[in-house]
Amino acid sequence: MQSVKEEAIKMISSMPEPVDIDEIMYRLYVIDKIRKSRDAAQKGDTITIDALKKEIEQW
Length: 59
Hints:
mainly alpha, 3 helices, 0% strand
């Protein structure tokens, strides 16, 4: 697995020119969320669909 720094450098290097800082920040944010979600799923730190529905209904 690549380090966060390596993954960020690879992602930024692969982006077409011109690119603005907002697009870079957004993509880094998405990569971070995916990485954290994948780690949580591997640890079994998830909830059922029914529990999610209950949380949404409480909003």
